[in-house]
């Protein structure tokens, strides 16, 4: 039986006050948790099936998040796909896993961006797949971006570990939270990631009552 969740805001306070003695202090995980909405639920991890069932139970289609602690097999989980979870980020030090739930606006935004890249590159006489590799939401250093791409032929000295472009989308996160996520990507890659494009999604009600998603794009570049 899954224990009732607590909010990420309350969980953070407990971590900082030392109430959770079983968790090692993990500043990177704490920064990520602060970027999540305060009411994001936090659950104790029990099994893969429990994670999927729990994520499905809190998924309302809006693309929110849920957090699991005491995830001992997080690195194994990252090598498997779960339909009810769009992407995951795992923190080995604190054994925390942040799961992002699927949402149609997120999918539409990343697909639109990929199509735009293909069109722009074609307009200058180049073919996307001849010069760039789309690596989607592949696991990169325990974290899955919403979208990523890199040159097919990398410059001398560059490895395949990091993409050149990363895209992060968010609906419940603020612009400043998304900016922090972008800076973390660049810092972790030591500048190998050159551009992080963040997409803020929100909805506006028009006079017909249609709740249509809208997007605002921001760019963060490596210095």
Brief overview:
With 223 residues, the protein is an alpha+beta fold. 32% of the residues lie in helices and 26% in strands. The chain has 2 domains: 6-100, no CATH class; 104-221, no CATH class.
How does the SSE layout of this entry go?
Elements: E1 6-7, H1 8-17, H2 27-34, E2 41-44, H3 48-58, E3 65-69, H4 74-77, E4 87-91, E5 96-100, H5 104-123, H6 128-131, E6 132-134, E7 147-151, E8 165-170, H7 175-188, E9 195-205, E10 211-221
Parallel strand pairs: 2-3, 8-9
Antiparallel strand pairs: 1-2, 3-5, 4-5, 6-7, 7-8, 9-10
What does this structure look like?
It is built from seven helices and ten strands. The strands form two sheets. A five-stranded mixed β-sheet has the order 1-2-3-5-4, sandwiched between helices. Strands 6-7-8-9-10 form a five-stranded mixed β-sheet, sandwiched between helices. The relative contact order is 0.12. It is 32% helix and 26% strand. The longest helix has 20 residues, at 104-123. It is of the alpha+beta class. Strand 8, helix 7 (175-188) and strand 9 form a beta-alpha-beta unit. It has two domains: 6-100, no CATH class; 104-221, no CATH class. It has helices spanning 8-17, 27-34, 48-58, 74-77, 104-123, 128-131, 175-188, and strands at residues 6-7, 41-44, 65-69, 87-91, 96-100, 132-134, 147-151, 165-170, 195-205, 211-221. The N and C termini lie far apart (49 Å).
């Amino acid at each position: 039986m899954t224990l009732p969740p607590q909010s990420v805001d309350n969980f953070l306070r407990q971590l900082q006050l030392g109430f959770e003695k079983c968790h090692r202090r993990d500043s990177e995980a704490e920064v990520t948790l602060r970027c999540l909405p305060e009411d994001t639920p936090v659950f104790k991890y029990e099994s893969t099936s429990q994670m999927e069932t729990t994520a499905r139970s809190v998924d309302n289609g809006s693309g929110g998040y849920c957090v699991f602690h005491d995830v001992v097999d997080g690195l194994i989980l990252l090598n498997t796909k779960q339909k009810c979870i769009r992407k995951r980020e795992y923190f080995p030090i604190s054994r925390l896993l942040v799961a992002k739930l699927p949402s149609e606006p997120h999918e539409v935004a990343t697909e639109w961006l990929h199509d735009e890249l293909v069109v722009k590159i074609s307009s200058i006489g180049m073919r996307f797949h001849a010069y760039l590799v789309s690596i989607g939401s592949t696991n990169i250093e325990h974290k899955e971006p919403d979208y990523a791409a890199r040159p097919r032929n990398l410059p001398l000295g560059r490895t395949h570990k990091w993409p050149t472009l990363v895209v992060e989308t968010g609906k419940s996160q603020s612009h400043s939270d998304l900016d922090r996520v972008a800076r973390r990507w660049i810092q972790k890659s030591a500048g190998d990631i050159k551009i992080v494009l963040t997409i803020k999604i929100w909805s506006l009600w028009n006079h017909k009552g249609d709740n249509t998603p809208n997007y605002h794009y921001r760019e963060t570049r490596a210095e």
